[in-house]
Amino acid sequence: MMSRRWILMAAGLASALAVVYLLGGITLGGALARSPVPLSAQELTTLEGNHDEHDPVYNGSIQVPADSAARGEQEEAMALQQLATLTAEEAKHAALREFPGATVNKVELDNENGSVVYSAHLTDSSGVGHDVKVDAGNGKVLAVERGDDPGGEQTGNTGAED
Known about the structure:
Blueprint: H1 2-34, H2 41-46, H3 73-83, H4 88-98, E1 103-112, E2 115-123, E3 129-135, E4 141-147, E5 154-158
Antiparallel strand pairs: 1-2, 2-3, 3-4, 4-5
């Protein structure tokens, strides 16, 4: 009789552990599903719609200090220039590596949601405008935004090859 009692207790304990395991897996899975996962430049640039002030997020190598938001436009431009380790010419060459034969219309140093990036506005050989986001610290192309007019007005996104 004693062994049957132990078997029932062990079965009950095993059932309780299985329930705890399943609930823990569901809870942990939900927590993992909500945790932020960094996206590649291609994943960021292929997302369409939802273009608010904070989209897309660029993971640049140089971050803008939080206190710079209170500065004027000229002061911010000077501060960004001091933070950048690449020149506008180097950013232009990085953008042209993505679009050989393109014409670069303008290169600007920007604060893109906390990252220091160059925006190279160019027109490719087929006449389509693009805004190539280049990391101002390492020259990596972070994103390519496609526009329909050569002036660089963005109307959609396209993926950038790394």
